[in-house]
Write a structure and sequence with these properties.
Length: 472
């Protein structure tokens, strides 16, 4: 019986005990694809896999945050009821009719007409537009961004906010605690001294235990100036050089009209979720400024459904002629991958635009593993160069454009708070088509036969990286 007292025996028992408990526990708490990844890790490395699963295994949020999101959604629904006259109603049985209803039921906001929407893919021009709007602000500036660096762009935005506050403009800056760590450290004290309210979202470090799983992030990018002008898209408050030698390419929408009130509601919701403070929200949205119908789609782990994922799949399923998707990070779940393949196999022109350069090597390796099946199904794949394509946008036929912060990866679909702007206007789609054409003109277009001839070691590396899709 001495072997029962030997440390090696207890270690072996613990090793197998972890495996058995994981087999019974993880599939119940995780989606099938994520469960497979975690069980593989725990099966190979039980003593390492278990603590990693406990820390990162599912998108845990505190009850307080979930309740605050539910309260915010309830208030948004109540505030929209008296505004039925502003609702845009698409034609029955149209693509827009299906998508608008889905997004309203899952993301709270109804489609509203009367908007003016300008898309900008010039990094400097979109930044200057934001700075000019802040400089012209009369009473309120609200900024919510994932990332703010202590660089020339961060300096310019901080200076503009401080100057606006000195003019008596009420300025609030809401930044992700991890993504904007450098900006918070560099600018928060100075901005607070100037009268700007600065708050960090989803605290990092040991403070994460009180609110959420440590790697859940608020990835949204939006600005609301004087409750009449809004900015949203993929561009952060930082210089474009995320990838050395490959400056970012972005798409930002500058909007005016009733949908700006929805951007304001998103800011107020995130401010309330983070601080508990209820901001004053006007009863009436801005007056009509154009003719474009639009609708916001927020998503994130605080919502009961995977809003962004479901919208992307629905858009792919309803395309009739052409579907174009641009994303810097492409690590889709099975349902999204199937939707793209089925669309292509149905005879729809499906164009996927990715970035040839990438600042996340493991993601790039995993991404390559998905391209074989897509190319085989007839999906056209282009790798944009020479810039890092950080923009995230999608267009369906000539009817719908989607721009925002949503990547086509599991992290965006399940872990990050994201934001998309849906535009139901052929004129806005035409703007996006021109941007897509520019991206495709500076791209390497993959050939299915040549892609299949890539070295076997690259195939193996990509396959192994894909096993970590739920961790990316």
């Amino acid at each position: 019986m001495d072997f029962l007292l030997h440390p090696a025996t207890w270690l072996l028992a613990l090793d197998w005990g972890i495996r058995i408990v994981a087999l019974a526990w993880i599939p119940v708490r995780s989606a099938p694809a994520a469960a497979r990844s975690w069980l593989l890790l725990v099966g190979f490395l039980p003593l390492l896999g278990l603590p990693l699963y406990l820390a990162f295994g599912h998108p845990w949020l505190s009850r307080e945050r979930r309740e605050r999101q539910a309260n915010a959604s309830r208030v948004i629904a109540e505030r929209q009821q008296p505004l039925a006259r502003l609702r845009w109603t698409p034609h029955d049985d149209s693509i827009a009719d299906d998508i608008a209803r889905l997004c309203e039921r899952t993301g709270d906001f109804m489609p509203m007409g009367g908007n003016a929407i300008a898309l900008e893919d010039d990094y400097a021009a979109s930044l200057q537009a934001l700075l000019a709007d802040i400089a012209a602000a009369r009473f309120e500036v609200h900024l919510l961004y994932y990332l703010m660096f202590d660089d020339a762009v961060g300096d310019a935005v901080a200076d503009a906010l401080a100057e606006a506050a000195r003019r008596g403009v009420h300025c609030r800056l809401l930044l992700d605690d991890v993504g904007a760590k450098r900006g918070l450290r560099a600018y928060a004290p100075r901005l607070r001294a100037a009268g700007v309210e600065v708050r960090a979202m989803l605290a990092g470090g040991l403070a994460w235990r009180r609110s959420a799983r440590m790697d859940l992030r608020n990835h949204r990018k939006l600005a609301v100036i004087d409750r009449r002008i809004g900015h949203t898209g993929s561009q952060n408050l930082a210089a474009p050089g995320f990838v050395p030698g490959f400056p970012n390419r972005e798409v930002v929408a500058r909007v005016q009209g009733p949908v700006v009130a929805q951007l304001g509601a998103i800011f107020a919701s995130d401010w309330y979720i983070e601080t508990g403070e209820v901001l004053a929200v006007p009863e009436q949205p801005p007056d009509a400024a154009g003719t474009s119908p639009a609708q916001l789609l927020p998503s994130g782990p605080a919502y009961p459904f995977a809003n962004a994922r479901n919208a992307v799949i629905a858009l792919a399923q309803r395309a009739r002629r052409r579907l174009v998707v641009a994303t810097p990070y492409f690590v889709p779940d099975d349902a999204t991958l199937d939707a793209l393949e089925i669309a292509a196999l149905s005879g729809i022109e499906v164009q996927l635009i990715l970035s040839r350069s990438n600042n996340q090597r493991l993601t790039r390796w995993a991404q390559d593993s998905y391209l074989d099946a897509l190319l085989e199904a007839g999906v056209k794949v282009a790798l944009h160069r020479p810039r890092f394509l950080h923009a995230k946008h999608l267009s369906v036929d000539d009817e719908i454009a989607l721009v925002g912060s949503i990547n086509l990866d599991i992290r965006s679909f399940a872990l990050n708070a994201e934001l998309g702007l849906l535009c139901y206007d052929p004129a806005v789609v035409a703007q996006l088509r021109r941007i897509e054409a520019h991206c495709l003109a500076d791209a390497e277009h993959l050939d299915a036969a040549a892609w299949r001839q890539r070295p076997h070691w690259r195939r193996s590396v990509s396959g192994i990286a894909r096993l970590a899709d739920s961790f990316l």
